Amino acid sequence: MNRNRQLVVVALGAITLYAPATARAQQDGLVAHPNNYRVQFENAWVRIIHVHIPGNADLADHTHPPGVMLHVYLNDANPIVFEHDGNPNTVTRPYVYARSYRVGRARPETHATINRFPGASDYLRVELKTQGDVGLGQRIPAPPLTNATRAVTEVSNAMYRATRVTIAARDSFVVTADSGRPAIIVALTEGIRAEGAAPLKLGQERFVDAGRRETLHNVGDAPQELLRVDFLTAPAAAPSTSPSLSRAP
Question: How many CB atoms lie within 10 A of CB 51?
Answer without folding.
Answer: 21
